[in-house]
Design goal:
The chain has 337 residues and is of the alpha/beta class. It has two domains: 87 residues, Orthogonal Bundle (Arc Repressor Mutant, subunit A); 209 residues, Vaccinia Virus protein VP39 (Rossmann fold, 3-Layer(aba) Sandwich). The protein has twelve helices and eleven strands. The strands form two sheets. Strands 6-5-4-7-8-10-9-11 form an eight-stranded mixed beta sheet. Helix 9 links the parallel strand 5 and strand 6. The longest helix has 36 residues. It is globular and about 60 Å long. The protein starts with 8 loop residues before the first helix and ends with a strand.
Length: 337
């Protein structure tokens, strides 16, 4: 059970009033299982959208629940940023899971997640052929993901932000290393895929947000690690995205960028919306410097035998200068078995 921070009498009374109603208590129990939309809760609880929205408004105002927008959708989760969320999690943990009403709610929750996974699979199948074609041009995704994990290190009780999270694959691998894991993507359909994949992996508490990589919806200094994986080549202004990502770092935090080295495959620009045909070591290092980061890692990702494919994939790591550790500062290839 999450440790409960001391609450003032006024805050505790407001929390008790908000939670002290059957439907709202059922909502808290469901949100303790992970993030849900108003539509999800309407389907699970069998109540009208206006009524569910009113209950959520009261829970949000009491600081028990946090709301986030994703286009026309609104998603809700227990507010892990404050004491109210810890109180709500404690209430949910005290509930008897064998209670028939709560057990039926969880069954309907499983059905909602199953339907979500089916939609995600259909979408993924529609784009998988193009993705497979691109994958064959560079080292396997497994090698790239392993290199990112190595650059992240053992992880901390702190937080990680994955920008352009796509299907959520990177979060599946690294979220368990951190106390808080958040993924951001501009595409609602991709977030639906990520949400289904993460739930299937038992990571329903990972946060997913629809957002603009140039104007991230978080306070400055919120994350210990930020990852930008195969995103910059789609952007008109990748340097600006690097600066925004760096602003998210806590003192001494690390920004990890993975993207292609310079290449001449013009079909990626015309057929796959790539705005940039790769980035040089000097270009990324320059953007890191402008963002207040020192580049301590700049490597091509290769297989143990030295293969890298037609499209070389690079990994850069920048460290926030406010806390300077001993730099590894190496330029050799990062080998992945």
């Amino acid at each position: 059970m999450r440790q409960l921070t001391t609450l003032s009498a006024d805050v505790l009374l407001a929390a008790l009033r908000a939670a002290g109603e059957e439907t709202r208590l059922r909502i808290l129990a469901l949100l303790s299982e992970g993030e849900l939309s108003v539509s999800d809760l309407t389907d699970i609880l069998g109540q009208s959208q206006p009524r569910i929205s009113r209950h959520l408004k009261l829970l949000t105002e009491a600081g028990l629940v946090r709301r986030s927008r994703e286009g026309a959708w609104a998603f809700f989760r227990l507010d892990e940023t404050g004491a109210g969320g810890a109180f709500a999690a404690s209430l949910a943990a005290w509930l008897d899971r064998a209670d028939p009403v709560l057990a039926a709610d969880r069954e309907r929750l499983a059905a909602v997640r199953g339907a979500r996974a089916e939609v995600a699979q259909t979408y993924f199948a529609s784009v998988a052929r193009d993705w497979d074609r691109l994958r064959r041009l560079h080292v396997p995704d497994e090698a790239v993901e392993a290199a990112i994990e190595a650059a992240v290190g053992k992880g901390t009780p702190g937080s990680v932000l994955d920008l352009g999270t796509g299907t959520g694959r990177m979060l599946e691998r690294i979220a368990p290393k951190f106390g808080r894991a958040v993924g951001v993507d501009a595409n609602h359909a991709m977030l639906a895929v990520a949400r289904a994949n993460l739930e299937k992996a038992g990571l329903s508490r990972v946060e997913l947000r629809q957002g603009d990589i140039y104007a991230l919806p978080f306070p400055r200094g919120s994350f210990d690690v930020v990852i930008i994986h195969q995103v910059l080549h789609f952007l008109d202004d990748p340097g600006r995205a690097v600066r925004e990502a760096a602003a998210m770092l806590s003192p001494g935090g690390r920004l990890i960028v993975v993207d292609f080295a310079p290449h001449e495959m013009e079909f990626l620009r015309t057929e796959h919306a790539h705005r940039r045909l790769g980035f040089s070591r000097a270009q990324i290092a320059s953007w890191f410097s402008e963002a207040g980061l020192s580049c301590d890692l700049s490597d091509e990702i290769t297989l143990a035998g030295g293969g890298s494919g037609q499209l070389p994939v690079m990994l850069w790591r920048g460290c926030d200068r406010r806390v300077q550790s001993d730099p590894m500062a190496r330029q050799n290839n990062l080998e992945v078995a």
